[in-house]
Design a protein that fits this description.
By secondary structure, chain A is an alpha+beta fold. The first copy, chain A, contains two helices and three strands.
Chain lengths: 73, 73
């Protein structure tokens, strides 16, 4: 669907745990050669995935979303 | 000034370098017990600082902004 994103918010008890999560997301993203937009604030990380070249969602987004959801919080 | 933020965008050559920068920002933020909002995407990190309890900017924001600007990119 054009312009769509997969968005999920992950909650944490402090800022540091959010940063650690972002580091893990970064490794998965580099491994997949596909990179989300990440919003980090105290206790919260929002991950948005889309495929810019397609102006919407592709299998790459779903695959990386699944990998991110498997990260141990 | 009510509702104001300090916002700065830092540019990088890849996602990983942006993540590394966010890790350094996180350490400074924990050290200052004051935490920014961070937007990370490929090649770019946007840092926003404000003091929620004051609905605007305080010395805490300016101090942390200075520390973040001193990070070696």
């Amino acid at each position: 669907m054009g312009g769509s994103s997969l968005v999920k918010v992950f909650k944490f008890d402090n800022f540091r745990s959010g940063v650690r999560f972002v580091v893990k997301v970064g490794k998965l993203a580099d491994g997949a050669n596909h990179h989300p937009e990440v919003k980090l604030s105290w206790g919260k990380v929002e991950i948005s995935l889309t495929t810019h070249e397609q102006l919407g969602l592709t299998q790459k987004d779903f695959n990386l979303a699944k990998e991110i959801e498997r990260i141990q919080l």
